[in-house]
Amino acid sequence: MILRTQFTGLLCCAVVVCLTVCSAIAATPAEYKQRVESARMSVEEMLSDLDESDTELEREIVADIRKDVPPTETISWPGGSVETDNRWLETMLNDLLERRETKPRTDLLINISERLLAVAESADNLAKAVESSRSKDEDKQKLAEILRREEYQKPEVREESLFQKWWREFTEWLSRVFPKPSLEPGTPSSFGSLQFGLQILIFAIVIALVGFLLYRFLPAIRGRLGSKTKKTNGDRVILGERIGVDQSANDLFSEAEQLARDGDLRAAIRKGYIALLCDLSDRKLVRLARHKTNRDYLRDVRKNEAVFENMRGMTTKFEANWYGLRPAEQNDWEDFRSGYRKTIEEAR
Q1: At what angle do helices 102-131 and 29-48 cross, to 10 degrees?
Q2: Is the Cβ–Cβ distance between 148 and 161 less than 8 Å?
Q3: pTM of the full structure
Q4: Alpha-carbon gap, residue 346 to 339, rounded angstroms
């Protein structure tokens, strides 16, 4: 009887340990979102007390943030899992601890807060997608759209560039053609010095020849490539959508209103947001670039407080309707259109 009781106790302990280990290995999307939001609140607290910051307290807060949002962790749910990549946060926190100037620290904290907000919204979308009762096909499509976002992508392995490959093959060829001298004992030192000097001379001649060829022919090649590029650079790419050189912001917003009349409110909000960015670019408030995200454009207008506040609301509406799982409704479009006009008025 005593042995049976001891065995039962050990079995219960083993089960508890297994459950504890499993819970530590992976978190649910909802738990991950809660910790990201907690970390963002800590960042906002540091930002509000920046002028009266205590170094020791600051290090404790940074340690809590690192605990809440580790560089990588597994997010799992019934039927799937994903590996996060938040190593950018560790880099920014290290930079924050090293800096003492108020302006760079303020910019760092604002940047961290905005990126944590985007990660929390993405985790919220993921949690809603998991809990949604829609059809399996639609769930898979929405989940795939969310999982394509940057924070859920594994870091790409940097491959060797074409120039690096050429340079490596060139240096290997030189090493084969002109191997280092292996002098045997008893060889006169003057002979080794002469051989080494000849190798240096040959290297110099080869480098001079390559430099002359680059100087002679590179401008002509660059001119031809440049002329071809100029012919195709008239179009603009905004959030992955190519906009013709002859399309204005008004044209784009007219297309958005037509999409809204046709009932495609989600596409109308996206087109309206692109029209907003195009209009702000015409007013020199943002600089369009193929690689930029909506959060990058929002940071561009931070110096204009009125435009920044309006555009932040527009960005939130755009993300909720474009990346969210719920269908856009008529009042979503009406609110977006009103915000668009207000933002344009503030930008004048």
Answers
A1: 160
A2: no
A3: 0.37
A4: 11
Q: HSE on the CB side for 97, CA within 13 Å?
A: 15
Instruction: Name beta bridge partners: 80.
Output: 77
Tokens of 193: 């010095």
- The per-residue DSSP string of 40-71 comes to HHHHHHHHHTGGG--HHHHHHHHHHHHHHS-S
Residue 240, sorted as left (phi over 0), alpha (psi -120 to 50) or beta, turns out to be left
Structure tokens at 150: 């940057």
Q: How many residues does the chain have?
A: 348
- Dump pLDDT digits (tens) for 219-264: 767 666 554 444 445 678 888 888 888 888 899 999 989 998 999 9
CA-to-CA distance for 149 and 170, rounded, in angstroms? Answer: 39
Q: What is the pLDDT of residues 136-171, one digit of tens each?
A: 656 677 777 777 776 666 666 566 778 788 888 877
Question: Is residue 80 classed as helix, strand or coil in its secondary structure?
Answer: strand
CB 66 within 8 A of CB 118: no
Among 256, 257, 265, 261, smallest CA distance to 332 is for: 265
> What is the Cα–Cα distance from 135 to 208, expressed in whole angstroms?
67
